């Protein structure tokens, strides 16, 4: 997933806001390693992942900057 994200960001298919964060994003993806998500979570800590009406998964912490309405499911499991 990291390789695909890095490639798409280099091709301009990913918008990064603020623009100055693009270099940080690229550096982070160049050195990415696998990690266990469950070990990084605190009790009831939410991941900023949402679904669009077309069921496309969107990762965005700020819902106000999106171009469509996002829906967060109440129960994940």
From TrEMBL:
EC numbers: 6.1.1.9
Gene Ontology MF, one: ATP binding
Family matches, as SUPFAM superfamilies: Nucleotidylyl transferase (SSF52374)
Matches recorded under Pfam families: tRNA-synt_1
Residues annotated as transmembrane: none
GO biological process, one term: valyl-tRNA aminoacylation
Domain Aminoacyl-tRNA synthetase class Ia: 9-65
Keywords, comma-separated and alphabetical: Aminoacyl-tRNA synthetase, ATP-binding, Ligase, Nucleotide-binding, Protein biosynthesis
Entry keyword Ligase: yes
ATP-binding found in the keyword field: yes
Primary enzyme class: ligase
GO cellular component labels: cytosol
Homology family: Belongs to the class-I aminoacyl-tRNA synthetase family.
Protein name: valine--tRNA ligase
Higher taxonomy: Eukaryota, Fungi, Fungi incertae sedis, Microsporidia, Nosematidae
């Amino acid at each position: 997933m990291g390789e695909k994200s890095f490639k798409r960001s280099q091709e301009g298919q990913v918008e990064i806001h603020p623009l100055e964060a693009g270099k940080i994003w690229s550096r982070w993806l160049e050195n990415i390693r696998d990690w266990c998500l469950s070990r990084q979570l605190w009790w009831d800590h939410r991941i900023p992942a949402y679904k669009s009406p077309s069921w496309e998964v969107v990762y965005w912490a700020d819902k106000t900057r999106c171009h469509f309405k996002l829906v967060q499911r109440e129960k994940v499991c």
